[in-house]
Design brief:
Blueprint (H helix, E strand, L loop, with lengths): L5 H12 L18 H5 L10 H10 L3 H41 L6 H63 L3 H30 L1
Protein name: Lipoprotein
Organism: Mucilaginibacter defluvii
Amino acid sequence: MKPLSHSVFITIAALLMSCSSANREDKNDVQPIVSDDYESGLISKREYHSPIDNIFKDVIKKDSVLNNLSNEINDFNQAKIDSLRNYLLFNEESANYYTAGAEATKNIKDSLLKKRILQLLTLSEQRYQKRTKALNESVLNIKNNDTTMQDYYTALKIAATLPVLERYQRKNLSKFQNVTHLDSAASALKNKTKAITEDQIKKLNKN
């Protein structure tokens, strides 16, 4: 007897797996892209949160189109988990029965009777596969559409958040002029330290 829709099981399983501020701030201090107050409610120090997701959560609060789409996707993901999990369990019940039936017939000593029972099981399984064909095709369609949707949703997050990052860069880049000054100071101090050291070495050589 053929295994019952293993590709459907794999497809369903894959789908189910796919779901502080300081009191005083210096005006030159670099602030997070997303405000501290907002981040404090989202970020746990024990967990990694993608900066893309953190910024996107802030962006959709100000964009009703993106917010509505995100809610729809979240609702779809939850419905997908609930529905496909139940269908997976439903399929497993039948698959387990047909497997157990085939094993049980091995205990039948009468060869003709064994053949008749195996035929009954095979016909039943074939009928079941016909009844579930449309559902199994729907599962595969869900997987394909979900994969494409998730690809575009990831691309959307980047397209919506990249401008925020670049505004953050432009706003804060000028605050780092002290790095250039520090570079000059480091060079001058190196030369001064080298000169004094060489002078001390020369004095030792004269003694």
